[in-house]
Amino acid sequence: MNFRILIGFLGAIGLASAQSCKNAYTQCEGINYRGPKCCQPGLYCKRLNDYYYYCEYNGK
Fold it and tell me: According to the UniProt entry, where is the signal peptide (predicted)?
């Protein structure tokens, strides 16, 4: 029983962290940027310039 609770808790942590990551075409990094620095699964943080990085689909 305790094992199931632990697995559920770990799953919830993973889901929460993925939800705080950014969606496609939203800022994810850059000078003076103070938000989440990760993108949703299937996306990566692409550099536009030193001040603006945004989440882009993998393969583009």
Answer: 1-18
| pLDDT over 90 (residue 9) | no
Cβ-contact 43, 57 below 8 angstroms: yes
**pLDDT in the model for residue 59:** 83
Cα–Cα separations (whole angstroms), residue 10 to 4, 5, 44, 57, 59? 10, 9, 24, 27, 30
Integer Cα distance of 40 and 48 in angstroms: 18
* Exposure on the CB side of residue 10, measured as CA atoms within 13 A: 6
Amino acid (one-letter) located at 52: Y
